[in-house]
Amino acid sequence: MIYFFYGDEEFNISNEIKKFKSKLDKDFIEMSYKYFNNPKFPDLVAAIKSQPMMFGKMLIEINCLSYLSGKTSEDKGFDDKQIAQITEALEGASENVDIIFVAQIPPDSQKKIDKRKKFFKLLSKFNAQEFVQIPSYKTAELEGWIKNQAKTKDLKLTDEIASTILIQIGSNLRMLDSELEKLKIYAGDKPITKDMVKEICVTNEDLFVFADYLICDEKVKAMEEFQKLLVKKHPLEILSVLHTLLHGKIQIKANASKYSPDEIAKIINMHPYRVKLEMQKLKNVSLKNLVKLKENLTNAEFRIKSGQATMDVEREVEYAILQ
Fold this sequence. Notes:
The protein has 323 residues and is an alpha/beta fold. The protein has 3 domains: 2-131, 3-Layer(aba) Sandwich (Rossmann fold); 139-200, Helicase, Ruva Protein, domain 3 (Orthogonal Bundle), CATH 1.10.8; 204-322, Zinc Finger, Delta Prime, domain 3 (Up-down Bundle). Helices cover 59% and strands 9% of the residues. It is built from 17 helices and 5 strands. It has helices at residues 10-22, 29-32, 41-48, 65-69, 80-91, 118-123, 139-151, 159-169, 173-187, 194-200, 202-215, 219-230, 235-255, 261-268, 272-281, 287-306, 313-322; strands at 2-7, 33-37, 58-63, 97-104, 127-131. Helix 7 crosses helix 8 (159-169).
């Protein structure tokens, strides 16, 4: 069977693929599961024509985002002859092979899927499903998702608790799922309470405090919070969340003079209550300083990941914070 999963909600796409993987024979997973990352045309056709090496199902996952996000036909697009060959290969694919084409748009990416492309239209003829990120301002929908996801873990949440979780953790589904897992372990058979949410999901709250000190240029307090966070998180993990927080703060600050909090919430996909709080915190913070801080952190991350860092990871992040 051929499947096509696309959209910007990474967690739901990942979960669907996980369901397929769970059906494979774990003893032969290396032979029964293959992953291809935007392969060249000959390799793409060969992947589609794959045959299982042993009895049972085989799963082929093909990341095809580059084929669909380019602006011109030169950006890994396919001509009519190639489309015809791909179509023939798809129609003749083995019944014992599941092929999943995935076009997942990364967070904060400027990429968009071009639905006008012939390759998109071809894949859409099969089992296509779009996975759209739930906007942060759609609180009722997100709270409903939290409650439904909690049920899969045998957790019962009241509307009030679901709302508390959403406000404290945010709208990232993967993070929400992770925190629900922690609550499940902590609570056992007991009902989830607000105090439990505050105690167990405190890590993200600590990150917010750290970010607040940082943007207000209270560097001594910021470093104290950073040291506390290091007990629970790796420096790169802290850096990753900080990037996301700063991205949101920069967008809020840049739009604060032009739009209302509710309008900004819709523009940047953030909970309206959080936007109002952030606008108050950012009142005396300059946009220039926020952008400079993000640049410093981006440069530090590049040095660390490219192997160009002259200090250990922790010191690199500290230096970026103190600049």
